[in-house]
Amino acid sequence: MNIGLKSMFYKYKRSVNWWDQGQKDAAVKHLDLRCCRRDSAAFQAVVSSDEEDFLATAGRDALLWKGGPLKIIRCELDTDAPVRTEIRWVGLIGDDNGTPTADALLDDVHVFVAKRSIQPVWVELHASESAAPGRYSGRIRFYAHTMFEDEVLVETLSFTLAISEASLPEPSDYSFYLDLWQHNCNIARKYEVPYWSDAHFDLLDRYLHSLGQLGQKALTLIVSEEPWSGQSSFIDAEPSDLNEYSIVPVRKSMDGQFHCDFSAMDRYVALGESHGIAREIEIFGLINIWTNVHAGYGGLMEGHPDAVRIRYFDEAEGCFRFMRKTQEFAEYVSMLEAHFSEMGWTQRVRIVADEPESMDVFRQSLDFLRTTAPSLRYKAAINHTSFISENIEGIEDYVPALNCAAEEHEKLLKLKRDLNGTVAYYVCCSPEKPNTFLSSPAIEARVIPWLAEGLQLDGFLRWNYTVWPDDPLRKLSYRPTIWKAGDTNFVYPGKLGAPLLSLRYKWLQRGIRDYEYMQLLKRSGLQAELDGVLEGVLLFRSPQELSPASGLKAEQLYSFNPEHYDRLYEIGVPQPASS
After folding, report:
1. Global pTM value
2. Which CA distances in Å does 445 have to 257, 308, 462?
3. Which of 452, 471, 503 is the last residue of a domain?
4. What's the pLDDT score for residue 577?
């Protein structure tokens, strides 16, 4: 057996001759770890055999292989540190080229491991706010047996954990502005439950918990049918169901009046707030609707520039219809505005435009909404630099794509100074680097918050928390010429009704926690020391070099060495004197 320890940023890919590479890339027998309070430290252990298949388990239940005699390898962790421990086998997900790549953190207590392949296990040590600072030790042991043999200890690996006095904030109090969009109808479909049912909200509770642990700031509410037109799934030879529908049922009563049922909306907002997601309520479906007229995804309302689709039940006719008059849409928008006001949400609500293409159509739609509902506020995710210079009245939050933020950085910072809202950046199917694809280097998820700090932006947005294709654990690759595997998700649909987190989720979380520690350092007057660490991680000389047009390689823009990032924690936060 070959057993050792690796960094939390280890990414295993099973490929041609990978076994030889794995032998050369030797694991170690000991690691020194550190973390703050309200923080965690993590690593991976790797186990493999070049002679036989085996079953790997992290449980204590009796276990035999269903196919007969097979070696069982059991790992067990013990530590004297005052931490909560977590052990999860890492599942391999097929990349676009078919390469099995480590990503999903599995619920499975045991996994089958083929000979000449490497099985990583994720180990994480969670320190609460009350954890006593100090230096602790721990071991992870591996035992082996076959059938009814007694277990034999085959390997002992060790680690130390230094817990500092510094304490990170609660995730709900993070200053990093994280906005990962939620596609909740897709969650319901994966578990085959009705939209907005009790069963659906039980699932959403668990998914929002995972977002809350990242410090998520925004709740996604879709208030019309198909604002993204099914992500154009109709172009695919094997389309996946990516349709998203309104959370607000509408009916037209016998007297011709429209009525909205806001109960599911209110329940979702309350659920998000229970997980600390309370900064923003982002509304999709009122402006900048994606269209494809030839495929049937066009506009419905005569005289209105945008393709908004509001479905309602007509009680007089006993059937569903769609609003086709601009005045009907105006009534609906007014009802939304009134409800936001009644609930006390007006300051938090943002009407979101996702990558507007036509400035004329966007201005017309924006003017209509601002006239109809003057209290509404607006946010735009933009993917072309000219938008930044438009200075469109009414937009309070700007989220440019990274290349736009880089190319127009000076204009963006000037705009940021003049705004009451936030300015973040996003990546999606582009740029290729940095990104959070399955094929992306592990460190790129960590560098995302560091770039926000270096560019003086407020945070990060991505569209992709749960935009899964139909069977993501079996086949994540979907439309690979546009979306690389992993572009559509940070988590997977777990069979126990909760999300399976990914390595990419954990690496991004590490970067967000790095960002929060940076804020502690700045508040402690340690900006100069922080700048020294930033210079060793962010290698570009000007923001414009981050644009793909610069032609620079990723290694020229930011460090790929985790130790350069970890130097952040060599700067101690001064503790207040005890009284």
Report:
1. 0.97
2. 50, 35, 12
3. 503
4. 61
First vs last Cα of the chain: how many Å apart? 55
Amino acid at 88: R
> How far, in Å, CA of 120 to CA of 88, rounded?
9
* Four-point Cα dihedral 393, 228, 488, 453, nearest 10: 0
Query: How many domains does the chain contain in total?
Result: 2
Question: What contacts 199, CB < 8 A, 6 or more positions away?
Answer: 191, 193
Helix axes 527-537, 503-523, angle to 10 degrees: 150
**Mind giving me the DSSP string for 238-282?**
S--------SS-EEE-TTS-EEE--HHHHHHHHHHHHTT--SEEE
Token digits of residue 428? 């999606």
Are 14 and 98 contacting, i.e. CB atoms less than 8 angstroms apart? no
Query: Using CA atoms, how far apart are residues 207 and 264, in angstroms rounded to an integer?
Result: 16
Longest CA pairwise span in the chain (Å): 79
Q: What pLDDT digit, counting tens, does each position of 202-260 carry? A: 999 999 999 999 999 999 999 999 999 999 999 999 999 999 999 999 999 999 999 99
| CATH number assigned to the domain comprising residue 492 | 3.20.20
* Domain extent for 148: 2-167
> Cβ neighbours of residue 572 under 8 Å, at least 6 residues apart?
164, 166
Q: Is residue 534 part of a domain?
A: no
Q: Please state, in angstroms and rounded to a whole number, the distance separating the CA atoms of residues 551 and 4.
A: 38
Cα three-residue angle 145-151-152, rounded to 5 degrees: 95
